[in-house]
């Protein structure tokens, strides 16, 4: 669903842009239409950018089979390397122990016995032997040696050379390398006796090779303390093997706190592994974006053991997950939009759909009236204002780790409400300077995840509470969760709206209305408008509208029965929204304060639909749910085509307003399957009949009294 973006650029294109229709892309990226979008791209550039992002992101991800194969290859290489290192360490330790245990007297006696039996060799330049401290290691000047266990000059390990002299001051041997002729000062611990091969034949003959053994003699059998001391010298510690990557399923990950938990693959009762602050540097993204971690996301990770202090003051060890990476091929949140001017000359609806970094994915519809400038302004300003308001509140709270899930959700809801207020104030300042009277309703939906469900102990009821049975195995608690395979992790849907745009959540086969339209006929809204000094009336088309106070000249003409549509068009069919300066001052008849509702998503929730009043003037909530279900479950259409189906169905049923639909498809959930019986019922309801037309309510711009 998202990728990490620079915080300063709120207009960065996201993967949700793939779901935009051609008309939407043309409207958002046509510079000539707005005249002020110097930093935006045209349609062709946007398509190229999306293609590059898709290719670059998919190149960093691997599917599960590839990860398993690479893990197996890596483990095999590590085992082979560990075996070679252990064998080299064993041989080196054995050689050093043998050299230390053999005395100089036995070496000289073997040399004298060999000199009696072998014929004399040609005379060569005599080599001086001095009782140096290095001889205690079984090394003599002129001996052939092999360099080993060098750290600073690891490239020389395995090189052969000849001992020149021992420097008592530094405690090192001067070794002349056979390959390059260079002389290096090496400590005795890094030298091993080397057999005389063809490389050594090129060096001048010397009696020293007769003294040094060609191969390490077998270690003598020792007992008692000597055996323990020799064993301590021979047993070299083997290098610790590197931990291999493992796989698991994310139970929850909170990008705001940068903490989470992973269910490791293995036994069903395995303990969750904790994701620390540096374990997954990915914000709050979800697939299909690279690095996205959602409830139920399949991941690979690197286990690491850390030590921490327990409550009793003792040290405890814990295995945590580091370098957590999602596997490729997983579905996340997909967004599809479509908009149509309908029977009007222009389309004043605007759409917002983008990632909000650690908060989640936000989509919205802004339905403008008397022009589209206010809706355009709100669509651009509300998303960054939401993020800014949340970060300000989070900074005030200090550490988010100590906050409960309820408090954290309250911070997000307050940020959504504040973003509406801040955006409206900024627009009113600009509108008064330019004498603009435009306005807009608006609705936004934010999908935010990473909330951990608390584990509640199940209490016995009735007689069972009086006679508990401790010997019985405790019943496994069922923890709530958004994804069935990751219980305990919850994603929330935050919806904020001001006006008559609507949000419908698709839970199984049902269409659940999340928002409630702000209409003047609502009892609470009517009381608020009249208390503020406004007037609530019903026009000739039986549409309830709100207008200025009764002593206003337009209101007086209305009471006298005049029907001048141009003058009466200032009456609105909604009582909340952005803009409309004449309704904000001096009397707050129309306000922008939104209602905010929070819903915990369950495994049966598979899509969310946002629609302008042009959609729901012609279709009911359940009819919209049926259209989306039929398009996606029955015909296999994606989110974009399903949004087109909703818009076209509303137009076929007689909607004459601007019609806009946004569909957020939750890829981690599966819609109910459609059988032939249900498809026949939907077809008979008129949703697929182009000739079917239903009466609709007129929009804000029609003549109210003619």
TrEMBL record:
Catalytic activity: O-phospho-L-seryl-[protein] + H2O = L-seryl-[protein] + phosphate; O-phospho-L-threonyl-[protein] + H2O = L-threonyl-[protein] + phosphate
SMART domains per UniProt: PP2Cc
Region (Disordered): 26-136, 187-249
E.C. no: 3.1.3.16
UniProtKB keywords: Hydrolase, Magnesium, Manganese, Metal-binding, Protein phosphatase
InterPro entries membership: PP2C, PPM-type-like_dom_sf, PPM-type_phosphatase-like_dom
Naturally occurring in which organism (per UniProt): Symbiodinium microadriaticum
Low complexity bias: start-end ranges: 225-237
Cofactor: Mn(2+)
Group of enzyme by EC: hydrolase
Example of a GO MF term: protein serine/threonine phosphatase activity
Domain PPM-type phosphatase: start-end pairs: 334-666
Family label: Belongs to the PP2C family.
Matches recorded under CDD domains: PP2Cc (cd00143)
Record-given protein name: protein-serine/threonine phosphatase
Feature: compositional bias, Basic and acidic residues: 44-57, 65-91
């Amino acid at each position: 669903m998202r990728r990490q973006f620079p915080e300063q650029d709120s207009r960065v294109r996201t993967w949700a842009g793939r779901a935009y229709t051609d008309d939407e892309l043309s409207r958002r990226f046509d510079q000539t239409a707005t005249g002020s979008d110097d930093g935006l791209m045209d349609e062709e550039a946007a398509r190229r950018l999306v293609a590059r992002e898709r290719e670059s992101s998919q190149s960093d991800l691997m599917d599960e089979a590839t990860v398993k194969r690479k893990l197996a290859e890596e483990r095999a290489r590590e085992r082979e390397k560990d075996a070679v290192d252990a064998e080299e360490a064993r041989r080196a330790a054995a050689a050093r122990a043998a050299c230390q245990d053999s005395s100089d007297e036995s070496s000289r006696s073997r040399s004298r016995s060999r000199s009696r039996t072998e014929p004399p060799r040609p005379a060569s330049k005599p080599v001086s032997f001095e009782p140096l401290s290095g001889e205690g290691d079984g090394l003599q000047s002129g001996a052939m040696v092999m360099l080993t266990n060098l750290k600073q000059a690891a490239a020389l390990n395995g090189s052969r050379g000849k001992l020149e002299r021992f420097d008592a001051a530094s405690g090192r041997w001067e070794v002349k390398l056979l390959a390059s002729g260079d002389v290096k000062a090496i400590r005795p611990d890094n030298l091993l006796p080397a057999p005389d091969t063809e490389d050594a034949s090129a060096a001048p003959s010397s009696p020293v090779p007769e003294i040094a053994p060609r191969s390490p003699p077998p270690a003598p059998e020792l007992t008692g303390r000597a055996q323990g001391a020799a064993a301590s010298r021979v047993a070299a510690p083997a290098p610790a093997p590197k931990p291999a990557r493992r796989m698991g399923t994310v139970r929850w990950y909170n990008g705001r706190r940068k903490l989470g938990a992973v269910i490791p693959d293995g036994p069903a009762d395995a303990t969750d592994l904790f994701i620390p602050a540096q374990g997954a540097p990915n914000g709050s993204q979800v697939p299909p974006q690279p690095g996205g971690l959602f409830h139920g996301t399949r991941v690979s990770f690197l286990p690491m053991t850390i030590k921490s202090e327990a409550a009793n003051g003792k040290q405890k060890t814990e295995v945590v997950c580091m370098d957590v990476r999602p596997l490729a091929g997983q579905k996340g949140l997909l967004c599809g939009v479509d908009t149509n001017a309908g029977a009007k000359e222009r389309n004043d609806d605007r759409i917002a759909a983008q990632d909000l970094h650690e908060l989640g994915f936000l989509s919205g519809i802004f339905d403008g009236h008397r022009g589209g400038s206010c809706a355009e302004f709100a669509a651009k300003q509300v998303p960054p204002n939401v993020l800014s308001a949340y970060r300000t509140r989070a900074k005030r709270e200090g550490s988010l780790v100590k906050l409960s899930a309820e408090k954290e959700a309250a911070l997000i809801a307050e940020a959504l409400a504040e973003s509406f207020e801040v955006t409206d104030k900024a627009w009113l300042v600009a509108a008064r300077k330019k004498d603009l009277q435009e306005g807009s309703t608006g609705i936004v939906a934010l999908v935010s995840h990473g909330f951990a469900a608390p584990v509640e102990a199940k209490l016995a009821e009735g007689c069972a509470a009086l006679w508990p049975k401790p010997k019985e195995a405790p019943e496994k608690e069922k923890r709530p969760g958004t994804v069935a395979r990751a219980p305990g992790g919850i994603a929330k849907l935050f919806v904020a709206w001001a006006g008559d745009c609507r949000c419908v959540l698709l839970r199984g086969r049902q269409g659940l209305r999340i928002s409630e339209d702000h209409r003047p006929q609502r009892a609470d809204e009517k009381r608020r408008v009249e208390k503020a000094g406004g007037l609530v009336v019903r026009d000739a088309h039986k549409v309830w509208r709100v207008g200025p106070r009764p002593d206003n000249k337009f209101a007086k003409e209305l009471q006298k029965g005049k029907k001048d549509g141009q003058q009466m068009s200032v009456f609105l069919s909604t009582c909340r929204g952005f803009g409309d300066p004449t309704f904000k001052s001096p009397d707050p008849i129309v306000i922008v304060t939104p209602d905010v509702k929070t819903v915990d998503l369950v495994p049966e929730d598979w899509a969310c639909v946002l629609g302008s009043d042009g959609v729901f003037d012609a279709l009911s909530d359940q009819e919209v749910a049926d259209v989306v279900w039929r398009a996606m479950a029955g015909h296999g259409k994606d989110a974009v085509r399903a949004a087109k189906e909703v818009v076209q169905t509303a137009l076929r049923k007689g909607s004459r307003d601007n019609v806009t639909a946004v569909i957020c498809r939750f890829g981690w959930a599966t819609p109910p399957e459609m059988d032939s019986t249900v498809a026949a019922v939907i077809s008979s309801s008129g949703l697929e009949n182009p000739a079917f037309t239903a009466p609709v309510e007129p929009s804000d711009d029609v003549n109210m009294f003619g």
